[in-house]
Write a sequence for this structure.
DNA sequence: TTATTCATGTAATTTGTTACATGATTCT
DNA sequence: AGAATCATGTAACAAATTACATGAATAA
Protein backbone atom coordinates (compact mmCIF):
# COMPACT_ATOMS: atom_id res chain seq x y z
CA UNK A 1 0.00 0.00 0.00
CA UNK A 2 2.71 2.44 -0.99
CA UNK A 3 1.89 5.94 -2.18
CA UNK A 4 1.19 6.64 -5.83
CA UNK A 5 3.51 8.86 -7.83
CA UNK A 6 1.18 11.85 -7.62
CA UNK A 7 0.90 11.42 -3.86
CA UNK A 8 4.69 11.51 -3.70
CA UNK A 9 4.95 14.54 -5.95
CA UNK A 10 2.75 16.37 -3.48
CA UNK A 11 4.96 15.29 -0.59
CA UNK A 12 7.96 16.40 -2.64
CA UNK A 13 6.50 19.84 -3.24
CA UNK A 14 5.88 20.19 0.49
CA UNK A 15 9.50 19.22 1.18
CA UNK A 16 10.40 22.70 -0.13
CA UNK A 17 8.22 24.23 2.60
CA UNK A 18 4.53 24.56 3.61
CA UNK A 19 2.13 25.12 0.76
CA UNK A 20 -1.56 25.28 -0.05
CA UNK A 21 -3.25 22.97 -2.54
CA UNK A 22 -3.51 25.86 -4.94
CA UNK A 23 0.21 26.52 -4.75
CA UNK A 24 1.04 22.85 -5.27
CA UNK A 25 -1.06 22.86 -8.41
CA UNK A 26 0.91 25.85 -9.68
CA UNK A 27 4.22 24.14 -9.10
CA UNK A 28 3.06 20.99 -10.87
CA UNK A 29 1.81 23.11 -13.78
CA UNK A 30 5.15 24.81 -14.05
CA UNK A 31 7.35 21.77 -13.88
CA UNK A 32 5.91 18.31 -14.34
CA UNK A 33 2.44 18.81 -15.81
CA UNK A 34 3.44 17.60 -19.27
CA UNK A 35 4.44 14.18 -17.99
CA UNK A 36 2.77 13.92 -14.59
CA UNK A 37 -0.25 16.05 -13.97
CA UNK A 38 -2.77 16.45 -11.18
CA UNK A 39 -6.07 18.32 -11.10
CA UNK A 40 -7.62 20.02 -8.07
CA UNK A 41 -9.94 17.04 -8.06
CA UNK A 42 -7.03 14.87 -6.99
CA UNK A 43 -4.82 17.32 -5.12
CA UNK A 44 -7.30 18.34 -2.44
CA UNK A 45 -8.48 14.79 -1.67
CA UNK A 46 -4.86 13.57 -1.57
CA UNK A 47 -3.90 16.31 0.89
CA UNK A 48 -6.76 15.23 3.16
CA UNK A 49 -5.68 11.61 2.83
CA UNK A 50 -2.11 12.55 3.67
CA UNK A 51 -3.34 14.42 6.73
CA UNK A 52 -5.42 11.50 7.92
CA UNK A 53 -2.33 9.31 7.61
CA UNK A 54 -0.24 11.80 9.55
CA UNK A 55 2.07 12.59 6.65
CA UNK A 56 1.14 16.28 6.73
CA UNK A 57 -0.51 18.71 9.10
CA UNK A 58 -2.59 21.67 8.06
CA UNK A 59 -3.29 25.09 9.36
CA UNK A 60 -5.59 27.84 8.21
CA UNK A 61 -3.70 31.04 7.72
CA UNK A 62 -4.51 34.52 6.49
CA UNK A 63 -2.21 35.69 3.74
CA UNK A 64 -2.88 39.25 2.54
CA UNK A 65 -6.40 39.08 3.86
CA UNK A 66 -6.95 35.75 2.11
CA UNK A 67 -7.69 32.52 3.86
CA UNK A 68 -5.80 29.48 2.79
CA UNK A 69 -5.02 26.09 4.23
CA UNK A 70 -1.29 25.57 4.48
CA UNK A 71 -0.04 21.99 4.52
CA UNK A 72 3.22 21.12 6.20
CA UNK A 73 5.24 17.91 5.92
CA UNK A 74 5.58 15.95 9.19
CA UNK A 75 8.55 13.77 10.13
CA UNK A 76 6.48 10.77 9.11
CA UNK A 77 5.72 12.41 5.78
CA UNK A 78 9.35 13.21 5.20
CA UNK A 79 10.30 9.61 5.91
CA UNK A 80 7.66 8.38 3.46
CA UNK A 81 8.99 10.78 0.84
CA UNK A 82 12.64 9.69 1.28
CA UNK A 83 11.55 6.10 1.27
CA UNK A 84 9.99 6.63 -2.14
CA UNK A 85 12.96 8.63 -3.41
CA UNK A 86 15.41 5.87 -2.47
CA UNK A 87 13.31 2.97 -3.75
CA UNK A 88 13.33 1.49 -7.23
CA UNK A 89 11.28 3.61 -9.62
CA UNK A 90 8.42 2.09 -11.54
CA UNK A 91 9.40 1.78 -15.18
CA UNK A 92 8.03 4.38 -17.52
CA UNK A 93 4.67 3.84 -19.15
CA UNK A 94 4.01 5.39 -22.52
CA UNK A 95 0.65 5.84 -24.18
CA UNK A 96 1.45 6.67 -27.76
CA UNK A 97 -1.54 6.59 -30.05
CA UNK A 98 0.57 7.35 -33.12
CA UNK A 99 2.60 4.22 -32.45
CA UNK A 100 -0.60 2.17 -32.38
CA UNK A 101 -1.60 3.60 -35.72
CA UNK A 102 1.73 2.49 -37.12
CA UNK A 103 0.67 -1.10 -36.39
CA UNK A 104 -2.24 -0.73 -38.75
CA UNK A 105 -0.57 1.45 -41.37
CA UNK A 106 -0.91 -1.25 -44.01
CA UNK A 107 -4.68 -0.69 -43.81
CA UNK A 108 -4.67 2.89 -45.11
CA UNK A 109 -3.73 4.47 -48.42
CA UNK A 110 -0.03 5.27 -49.03
CA UNK A 111 -0.68 9.01 -49.34
CA UNK A 112 -2.62 8.90 -46.05
CA UNK A 113 0.40 7.38 -44.35
CA UNK A 114 2.55 10.28 -45.46
CA UNK A 115 -0.08 12.75 -44.32
CA UNK A 116 -0.40 11.12 -40.90
CA UNK A 117 3.35 11.19 -40.30
CA UNK A 118 3.65 14.77 -41.50
CA UNK A 119 0.87 15.93 -39.21
CA UNK A 120 2.38 14.08 -36.32
CA UNK A 121 5.79 15.67 -36.81
CA UNK A 122 4.13 19.08 -36.74
CA UNK A 123 2.43 18.17 -33.46
CA UNK A 124 5.75 17.10 -31.98
CA UNK A 125 7.49 20.29 -33.08
CA UNK A 126 4.76 22.43 -31.54
CA UNK A 127 4.89 20.52 -28.30
CA UNK A 128 8.68 20.80 -28.11
CA UNK A 129 8.40 24.56 -28.56
CA UNK A 130 5.90 24.74 -25.70
CA UNK A 131 8.30 22.76 -23.54
CA UNK A 132 11.10 25.13 -24.31
CA UNK A 133 9.01 28.01 -23.03
CA UNK A 134 8.37 26.43 -19.62
CA UNK A 135 10.52 27.87 -16.89
CA UNK A 136 11.22 25.50 -14.04
CA UNK A 137 9.89 26.13 -10.54
CA UNK A 138 12.75 27.51 -8.54
CA UNK A 139 12.51 27.91 -4.82
CA UNK A 140 14.97 29.42 -2.39
CA UNK A 141 16.52 25.97 -2.62
CA UNK A 142 16.56 26.47 -6.39
CA UNK A 143 18.81 23.86 -7.89
CA UNK A 144 20.02 22.59 -11.23
CA UNK A 145 17.91 19.43 -10.91
CA UNK A 146 14.72 21.35 -11.56
CA UNK A 147 15.93 22.09 -15.07
CA UNK A 148 16.89 18.50 -15.67
CA UNK A 149 13.46 17.13 -16.55
CA UNK A 150 12.90 19.93 -19.02
CA UNK A 151 16.21 19.10 -20.59
CA UNK A 152 15.16 15.47 -20.71
CA UNK A 153 11.84 16.40 -22.30
CA UNK A 154 13.43 18.54 -24.96
CA UNK A 155 15.83 15.76 -25.86
CA UNK A 156 13.03 13.19 -25.87
CA UNK A 157 10.97 15.23 -28.31
CA UNK A 158 14.03 15.91 -30.42
CA UNK A 159 14.50 12.15 -30.69
CA UNK A 160 10.87 11.62 -31.68
CA UNK A 161 10.98 14.35 -34.31
CA UNK A 162 14.13 12.80 -35.72
CA UNK A 163 12.71 9.27 -35.79
CA UNK A 164 9.48 10.25 -37.48
CA UNK A 165 11.30 12.47 -39.96
CA UNK A 166 13.38 9.50 -40.96
CA UNK A 167 10.24 7.42 -41.41
CA UNK A 168 8.70 10.19 -43.48
CA UNK A 169 11.69 10.31 -45.79
CA UNK A 170 11.59 6.56 -46.21
CA UNK A 171 7.88 6.67 -47.04
CA UNK A 172 8.29 9.51 -49.50
CA UNK A 173 11.08 7.69 -51.27
CA UNK A 174 8.74 4.75 -51.86
CA UNK A 175 5.47 6.59 -52.56
CA UNK A 176 4.04 5.86 -49.14
CA UNK A 177 5.29 2.32 -48.86
CA UNK A 178 8.11 0.81 -46.91
CA UNK A 179 10.72 -1.48 -48.39
CA UNK A 180 10.45 -5.08 -47.17
CA UNK A 181 13.69 -4.81 -45.25
CA UNK A 182 13.94 -1.46 -43.68
CA UNK A 183 16.99 -0.04 -42.02
CA UNK A 184 15.71 2.71 -39.76
CA UNK A 185 18.79 3.26 -37.70
CA UNK A 186 19.49 6.43 -35.78
CA UNK B 1 -17.94 10.39 -27.80
CA UNK B 2 -15.32 8.85 -30.04
CA UNK B 3 -13.78 5.48 -29.25
CA UNK B 4 -10.83 5.23 -26.90
CA UNK B 5 -7.47 4.02 -28.17
CA UNK B 6 -7.93 0.53 -26.74
CA UNK B 7 -11.36 0.29 -28.34
CA UNK B 8 -9.72 1.14 -31.66
CA UNK B 9 -6.88 -1.33 -31.17
CA UNK B 10 -9.52 -4.04 -30.81
CA UNK B 11 -11.22 -2.90 -34.02
CA UNK B 12 -7.81 -2.86 -35.68
CA UNK B 13 -7.07 -6.43 -34.62
CA UNK B 14 -10.42 -7.51 -36.04
CA UNK B 15 -9.58 -5.77 -39.33
CA UNK B 16 -7.16 -8.66 -39.91
CA UNK B 17 -10.08 -11.10 -39.67
CA UNK B 18 -12.54 -12.52 -37.10
CA UNK B 19 -11.10 -13.21 -33.68
CA UNK B 20 -12.08 -14.17 -30.14
CA UNK B 21 -11.36 -12.00 -27.11
CA UNK B 22 -8.68 -14.46 -26.10
CA UNK B 23 -6.95 -14.18 -29.46
CA UNK B 24 -7.11 -10.37 -29.36
CA UNK B 25 -5.40 -10.41 -25.99
CA UNK B 26 -2.63 -12.57 -27.45
CA UNK B 27 -2.06 -10.19 -30.33
CA UNK B 28 -1.92 -7.19 -28.01
CA UNK B 29 0.54 -9.04 -25.76
CA UNK B 30 2.74 -9.81 -28.72
CA UNK B 31 2.81 -6.38 -30.25
CA UNK B 32 1.63 -3.36 -28.30
CA UNK B 33 1.44 -4.49 -24.67
CA UNK B 34 4.52 -2.54 -23.63
CA UNK B 35 2.99 0.77 -24.63
CA UNK B 36 -0.74 0.08 -24.87
CA UNK B 37 -2.09 -2.83 -22.93
CA UNK B 38 -5.53 -4.28 -22.25
CA UNK B 39 -6.60 -6.92 -19.76
CA UNK B 40 -9.44 -9.39 -20.20
CA UNK B 41 -11.32 -7.14 -17.82
CA UNK B 42 -11.43 -4.52 -20.52
CA UNK B 43 -11.37 -6.59 -23.69
CA UNK B 44 -14.53 -8.62 -23.08
CA UNK B 45 -16.67 -5.66 -21.98
CA UNK B 46 -15.40 -3.60 -24.93
CA UNK B 47 -16.32 -6.37 -27.38
CA UNK B 48 -19.83 -6.42 -25.96
CA UNK B 49 -20.01 -2.66 -26.18
CA UNK B 50 -18.83 -2.76 -29.80
CA UNK B 51 -21.49 -5.34 -30.57
CA UNK B 52 -24.25 -3.27 -28.99
CA UNK B 53 -23.12 -0.35 -31.15
CA UNK B 54 -23.13 -2.50 -34.27
CA UNK B 55 -19.39 -2.21 -34.87
CA UNK B 56 -18.92 -5.97 -34.63
CA UNK B 57 -21.05 -9.09 -34.78
CA UNK B 58 -20.37 -12.28 -32.88
CA UNK B 59 -20.91 -15.92 -33.45
CA UNK B 60 -20.28 -18.92 -31.25
CA UNK B 61 -18.16 -21.44 -33.07
CA UNK B 62 -16.60 -24.77 -32.23
CA UNK B 63 -12.89 -24.90 -32.97
CA UNK B 64 -11.27 -28.30 -32.29
CA UNK B 65 -14.07 -29.21 -29.92
CA UNK B 66 -13.67 -25.90 -28.13
CA UNK B 67 -16.34 -23.27 -27.92
CA UNK B 68 -15.36 -19.72 -28.57
CA UNK B 69 -17.09 -16.49 -29.47
CA UNK B 70 -15.72 -15.10 -32.72
CA UNK B 71 -16.10 -11.38 -33.31
CA UNK B 72 -16.24 -9.98 -36.82
CA UNK B 73 -15.91 -6.37 -37.96
CA UNK B 74 -19.03 -4.93 -39.63
CA UNK B 75 -19.03 -2.24 -42.32
CA UNK B 76 -19.92 0.24 -39.63
CA UNK B 77 -17.03 -0.99 -37.51
CA UNK B 78 -14.63 -0.73 -40.41
CA UNK B 79 -15.74 2.83 -41.05
CA UNK B 80 -15.23 3.72 -37.39
CA UNK B 81 -11.76 2.20 -37.54
CA UNK B 82 -10.72 4.10 -40.68
CA UNK B 83 -12.16 7.25 -39.24
CA UNK B 84 -9.87 6.88 -36.27
CA UNK B 85 -6.89 5.95 -38.42
CA UNK B 86 -7.28 9.06 -40.57
CA UNK B 87 -7.94 11.47 -37.71
CA UNK B 88 -5.38 13.46 -35.74
CA UNK B 89 -3.74 11.27 -33.11
CA UNK B 90 -3.83 12.25 -29.47
CA UNK B 91 -0.38 13.40 -28.41
CA UNK B 92 1.66 10.93 -26.45
CA UNK B 93 1.42 10.83 -22.68
CA UNK B 94 4.38 9.67 -20.66
CA UNK B 95 4.36 8.64 -17.03
CA UNK B 96 7.97 8.58 -16.02
CA UNK B 97 8.50 8.21 -12.31
CA UNK B 98 12.27 8.49 -12.64
CA UNK B 99 11.84 11.91 -14.24
CA UNK B 100 9.78 13.01 -11.24
CA UNK B 101 12.51 11.88 -8.90
CA UNK B 102 14.94 14.03 -10.84
CA UNK B 103 12.91 17.06 -9.75
CA UNK B 104 13.67 16.28 -6.14
CA UNK B 105 17.22 15.03 -6.57
CA UNK B 106 18.62 17.89 -4.51
CA UNK B 107 16.86 16.33 -1.51
CA UNK B 108 18.90 13.12 -1.42
CA UNK B 109 22.54 12.37 -0.78
CA UNK B 110 24.97 12.66 -3.72
CA UNK B 111 25.88 8.96 -3.59
CA UNK B 112 22.19 8.07 -3.61
CA UNK B 113 21.73 10.08 -6.79
CA UNK B 114 24.42 8.05 -8.50
CA UNK B 115 22.87 4.81 -7.23
CA UNK B 116 19.41 5.79 -8.46
CA UNK B 117 20.64 6.63 -11.95
CA UNK B 118 22.74 3.46 -12.14
CA UNK B 119 19.82 1.27 -11.12
CA UNK B 120 17.57 3.02 -13.60
CA UNK B 121 19.99 2.47 -16.48
CA UNK B 122 20.05 -1.24 -15.62
CA UNK B 123 16.26 -1.32 -15.72
CA UNK B 124 16.25 0.37 -19.11
CA UNK B 125 18.82 -2.05 -20.52
CA UNK B 126 16.82 -5.05 -19.31
CA UNK B 127 13.63 -3.67 -20.79
CA UNK B 128 15.29 -2.96 -24.12
CA UNK B 129 16.52 -6.54 -24.24
CA UNK B 130 13.00 -7.81 -23.61
CA UNK B 131 11.74 -5.62 -26.42
CA UNK B 132 14.32 -7.03 -28.78
CA UNK B 133 13.02 -10.52 -28.09
CA UNK B 134 9.42 -9.69 -29.02
CA UNK B 135 8.46 -10.88 -32.45
CA UNK B 136 5.72 -8.90 -34.12
CA UNK B 137 2.31 -10.37 -34.80
CA UNK B 138 2.26 -11.25 -38.48
CA UNK B 139 -0.90 -12.30 -40.21
CA UNK B 140 -1.42 -13.44 -43.78
CA UNK B 141 -1.39 -9.72 -44.44
CA UNK B 142 1.96 -9.65 -42.61
CA UNK B 143 3.59 -6.33 -43.38
CA UNK B 144 6.64 -4.29 -42.53
CA UNK B 145 4.58 -1.86 -40.42
CA UNK B 146 4.18 -4.44 -37.69
CA UNK B 147 7.91 -4.27 -37.07
CA UNK B 148 7.91 -0.50 -37.03
CA UNK B 149 6.72 0.05 -33.46
CA UNK B 150 9.28 -2.40 -32.17
CA UNK B 151 11.94 -0.48 -34.06
CA UNK B 152 10.59 2.71 -32.54
CA UNK B 153 10.67 1.18 -29.06
CA UNK B 154 14.21 -0.04 -29.39
CA UNK B 155 15.35 3.39 -30.55
CA UNK B 156 13.40 5.09 -27.77
CA UNK B 157 15.05 2.98 -25.10
CA UNK B 158 18.43 3.46 -26.74
CA UNK B 159 17.88 7.21 -26.42
CA UNK B 160 16.90 6.92 -22.76
CA UNK B 161 19.91 4.74 -21.94
CA UNK B 162 22.14 7.25 -23.65
CA UNK B 163 20.63 10.24 -21.88
CA UNK B 164 20.83 8.73 -18.41
CA UNK B 165 24.36 7.45 -19.06
CA UNK B 166 25.38 10.99 -19.86
CA UNK B 167 23.76 12.20 -16.64
CA UNK B 168 25.55 9.46 -14.70
CA UNK B 169 28.92 10.48 -16.10
CA UNK B 170 28.25 14.08 -15.21
CA UNK B 171 27.27 13.14 -11.66
CA UNK B 172 30.30 10.91 -11.19
CA UNK B 173 32.62 13.65 -12.39
CA UNK B 174 31.29 15.92 -9.65
CA UNK B 175 30.84 13.42 -6.81
CA UNK B 176 27.09 13.21 -7.21
CA UNK B 177 26.51 16.88 -7.86
CA UNK B 178 25.76 18.77 -11.02
CA UNK B 179 27.63 21.87 -12.13
CA UNK B 180 25.55 25.05 -11.97
CA UNK B 181 25.49 25.34 -15.75
CA UNK B 182 25.08 21.96 -17.26
CA UNK B 183 25.48 21.17 -20.89
CA UNK B 184 23.65 17.87 -21.36
CA UNK B 185 23.47 17.83 -25.09
CA UNK B 186 22.91 14.70 -27.11
C1' DT C 1 -2.69 -37.36 -13.39
C1' DT C 2 -1.54 -32.98 -13.08
C1' DA C 3 -0.14 -28.68 -14.94
C1' DT C 4 -0.78 -25.65 -18.70
C1' DT C 5 -3.20 -23.48 -22.13
C1' DC C 6 -7.60 -22.24 -24.01
C1' DA C 7 -11.61 -19.64 -23.04
C1' DT C 8 -15.10 -16.24 -20.98
C1' DG C 9 -16.69 -13.39 -17.90
C1' DT C 10 -17.94 -10.36 -13.45
C1' DA C 11 -17.26 -7.51 -9.10
C1' DA C 12 -14.64 -4.61 -6.48
C1' DT C 13 -11.39 -1.32 -6.41
C1' DT C 14 -8.22 2.23 -8.03
C1' DT C 15 -7.11 6.35 -10.04
C1' DG C 16 -8.14 10.13 -12.11
C1' DT C 17 -10.66 13.84 -14.85
C1' DT C 18 -14.42 17.16 -15.73
C1' DA C 19 -17.87 19.87 -14.41
C1' DC C 20 -20.05 22.15 -10.96
C1' DA C 21 -20.50 25.24 -6.91
C1' DT C 22 -18.92 29.01 -4.22
C1' DG C 23 -16.84 33.17 -2.89
C1' DA C 24 -13.11 36.69 -1.85
C1' DT C 25 -9.70 39.83 -3.67
C1' DT C 26 -7.14 42.34 -6.98
C1' DC C 27 -6.15 44.30 -11.42
C1' DT C 28 -7.79 47.12 -15.39
C1' DA D 1 -17.73 47.73 -12.86
C1' DG D 2 -16.14 43.69 -14.58
C1' DA D 3 -12.58 40.34 -15.56
C1' DA D 4 -9.00 37.65 -13.83
C1' DT D 5 -6.81 35.42 -10.25
C1' DC D 6 -6.78 33.32 -5.71
C1' DA D 7 -8.76 29.65 -3.19
C1' DT D 8 -11.27 25.21 -1.79
C1' DG D 9 -13.91 21.67 -2.42
C1' DT D 10 -17.53 17.84 -4.12
C1' DA D 11 -20.22 14.76 -7.33
C1' DA D 12 -20.54 12.34 -11.38
C1' DC D 13 -18.30 9.93 -14.55
C1' DA D 14 -14.56 7.36 -17.07
C1' DA D 15 -11.22 3.94 -17.85
C1' DA D 16 -8.87 0.34 -16.48
C1' DT D 17 -6.72 -3.16 -13.35
C1' DT D 18 -6.85 -7.01 -10.12
C1' DA D 19 -8.82 -10.71 -8.22
C1' DC D 20 -12.16 -13.96 -8.44
C1' DA D 21 -14.96 -17.67 -10.52
C1' DT D 22 -15.51 -21.32 -13.74
C1' DG D 23 -14.59 -25.01 -16.77
C1' DA D 24 -12.94 -27.72 -20.96
C1' DA D 25 -9.10 -29.68 -23.56
C1' DT D 26 -4.41 -30.84 -24.13
C1' DA D 27 0.49 -31.65 -23.16
C1' DA D 28 3.91 -33.50 -19.80
Amino acid sequence: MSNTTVENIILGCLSFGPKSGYEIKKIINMSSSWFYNASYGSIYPILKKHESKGLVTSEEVVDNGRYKRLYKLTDKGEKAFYNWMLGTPRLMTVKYEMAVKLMFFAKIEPQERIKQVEEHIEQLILFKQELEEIEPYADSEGDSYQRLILDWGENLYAFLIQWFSMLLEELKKNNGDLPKRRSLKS
Summary: Chain A touches chain B through 65 residues (CB under 8 Å). The mean pLDDT of chain A is 91. Chain A is about 55% helix and 10% strand.
